[in-house]
Known about the structure:
Helix content is 69%, strand content 0%. It has helices at residues 2-25, 42-49, 51-84.
Amino acid sequence: MAFVLVVAGAYGLVLAPVLAVVVISVFAQEIVSFPPEGFTLRWYANAWEKREFARGFVTSLQVAFAASAIGVPLGTAAALAINRGFGRMDGLRGR
């Protein structure tokens, strides 16, 4: 149970700033203040209208897809090799 709490705390620590940025990004005012005056998606529309941001977003999606397409099969193959104990990797298992 303690391990689960530590892992949950680590995830919370890593994801809390991302969540804060997402929440603040929909505030209507240009300078952050609490309580917010309203909520809007205007900032996202403004960024998408600028070609540089749109191109960067599409490039980021392409890189993410390529990294996933390469990393998932390689990671799966490595995990299977370690688990099944092929060759020199047999000593990596904790058994």
